[in-house]
Automatic annotation (TrEMBL), chain A:
PANTHER family: COP9 SIGNALOSOME COMPLEX SUBUNIT 6, EUKARYOTIC TRANSLATION INITIATION FACTOR 3 SUBUNIT F-RELATED. GO terms for biological process: COP9 signalosome assembly; protein deneddylation; red, far-red light phototransduction. GO terms for molecular function: metallopeptidase activity. Belongs to the peptidase M67A family. CSN6 subfamily. Component of the COP9 signalosome complex (CSN), a complex involved in various cellular and developmental processes such as photomorphogenesis and auxin and jasmonate responses. The CSN complex is an essential regulator of the ubiquitin (Ubl) conjugation pathway by mediating the deneddylation of the cullin subunits of SCF-type E3 ligase complexes, leading to decrease the Ubl ligase activity of SCF. It is involved in repression of photomorphogenesis in darkness by regulating the activity of COP1-containing Ubl ligase complexes. Coiled coil: none annotated. This is COP9 signalosome complex subunit 6.
From TrEMBL, chain B:
This is COP9 signalosome complex subunit 3. GO terms for biological process: ubiquitin-dependent protein catabolic process. It comes from Brassica carinata. PANTHER family: 26S PROTEASOME NON-ATPASE REGULATORY SUBUNIT 3/COP9 SIGNALOSOME COMPLEX SUBUNIT 3, COP9 SIGNALOSOME COMPLEX SUBUNIT 3. The keyword Cytoplasm applies.
Amino acid sequence: MAPSSSSGLTFKLHPLVIVNISDHYTRVKTQLNPPPSVCATENASSNNGEAMLQPNPRVYGCVIGVQRGRTVEIFNSFELLFDPSTETLDRSFLEKKQELYKKVFPDFYVLGWYSTGSDAEESDMLIHKALMDINESPVYVLLNPAINHAQKDLPVTIYESELHVIDGIPLLIFAHTSYTIETVEAERISVDHVAHLKPSDGGSAATQLAAHLTGIHSAIKMLNSRIRVLHQYLAAMEKGDIPCENSLLRQVSSLLRRLPAMESERFHDNFLMEYNDKLLVTYLAMITNCTSTMNEMVDKFNIAYDRNARRGGRTAFM
Amino acid sequence: MSSTENLITSIQGLSASSGDLSALHRILKGAEETLRADSDLQLSTLDQLDPSKHSLGYLYLLDVLTCGGPMSKEKASEVVLLIARFITSCDAEQIRLASDKFVSLCKGFKDRVLELEDPLRGVAPLLSAVRKVQVSTKRLTALHPDCLQLCLQAKCYKAGFSILSDDILEVDQPRDFYLYCYYGGMICIGQKKFQKALELLYNVVTAPMHSVNAIALEAYKKYVLVTLIHSGQFSVSLPKCASTAAQRHLKTWSIPYTEVGNCYNEGKISELQAVVVAHSSDFEKDNNLGLVKQAVSSLYKRNILRLTQKYLTLSLQDIANMVQLANAKEAEMHVLQMIQDGQIHALINQKDGMVRFLEDPEQYKTSEMIEVMDSVIQRTIMLSKNLIAMDESLSCDPLYLGKVGRERQRYDFGEDFDTVPQKFSM
């Protein structure tokens, strides 16, 4: 359904657009499915029946930017309301917003539209055609909100429309194009900030220390597995499953004779003392971490639940 | 009655697998009314059932039989024996299906045992009951405080202490939690494990509450005294995490204790004793007089501890003078006691009556230390994960977000920022 486009246009996407789309989606999703504490407080209103709405609502909006020659640069985006009865986007609102944006950014114009979902659908073509009177060849930016840890690329695809003749009928179909991410300095800083807000479990090591330790860890793991192989080999040789090979045995024994490198009372003492020191430092770090988390949590709890919370002079910055 | 016999046969038949058990549960719930109306039901009918295999049915029948009003002493002790035997031999899985019935049965059991004034009989059964009702070791059940109360009455602190060693992470009812921590604190005081008592009492005092309740007040009084005994310091202000209700009102209700605390901070024995004598009627009323006396004797220890920070060697007579003890012999006894408890490290030279204070000899060089550190670090990591999860769920709580949004409105300066909307639409 989505072959590669052959128009030869280069697309540049700014991170602001991606953050906008994902923020829009998250907001709508959270408001449609409020957390259970709020559900319980609303007594038997109609909201309870609708609380089980589509788990993944689709959101829609417009992308704007600049097209210079063969390069299409998508700078910004704004949201639009989708009218499910007529299956079109709210036209008057779009034009109003367009006017407003023209005042601030005179160079930008509507380049296309965006939506969320896992794949482009047939119904999207209607919206696409509706936008064709603003821009002859709009682009369609699709964001896949499903979180897939194994996937390394961004779940954003850009589609162009192409006129193909299928069975003698000229049809417009979506063709996906490649794009690059282009950042302005301000965007780089904010994306960096967002990325460091919460370190993901199992993600790549963000800091130098973690990278160094991971390197050592994998090295030791490799050493361990190799020693295990040798051990199994020797055990098998002892049992008689494998014929004895004297050259290999000589190599193994020379390896073993190199150990232990150092064995004395003082070394043992010093080693244990250093080990304990490191453990104590780790413990201290853990306790500090826990204490700071607990402190923030207590602050939040007091703000949220304490009836007579202190007023004046204390705002909690999230 | 034939319906009772039917019920008994169905109990015997359906107690095998979990699917049958849920069907049995439904039958029992429906038949409960008829059972109550049945006047022929006797304790002897229970003999037809085996408590370990037919626990669910046995539980329902026992509940109907024993929840009646006041009983004669012999009947009460017979009932108590029956319930005790049931609790020790029942099957945990079946019990958890009807856990609130089981809890009410155990509470009734506890009341009868207290009526009979023989709390010791109830301790062991309730201990096993707690273990059986608990879904996981991190969850507090309604039976925990009852068990601890019986242990306190029976003065067998060791049994109660075994329950206290679990870390509690989930709580069903706040009142259970308050009672659990309060009784637990008292048991630890009885066992002279003041560190743990302090933790438990601290939990009650800083627990979230909208208005001060009596349990928190009593706990606060004991908390003040135990802080004095254990750490030798007293501060009037409660930690930040205590609820504002507690912070404002607890102090007004426990003035004698705060006076003792303030006097303790000064460090003069005679003044402290005068204050204690002045308020002794208050302390007697709260049953805290023993604790207060312990606090007074701990003042000596605190003063001696202070001396270790100033001097390297001191003669016993000098110690006695500085701490206002009677003579050198008493000073020697106190120092010896403290060395044995591990509170200070010192060497007493008996020939010339000199005491030399030493540093902590722990070198952190041994492999046992590594094991201790490792287990402690693991525990902290688990705690940290729990805390981060709770923190995140609080950040997403709409109650919290609403209040933060509202407060931000006041401090943004008008023209530059829009007021933060309560609900983001679109």
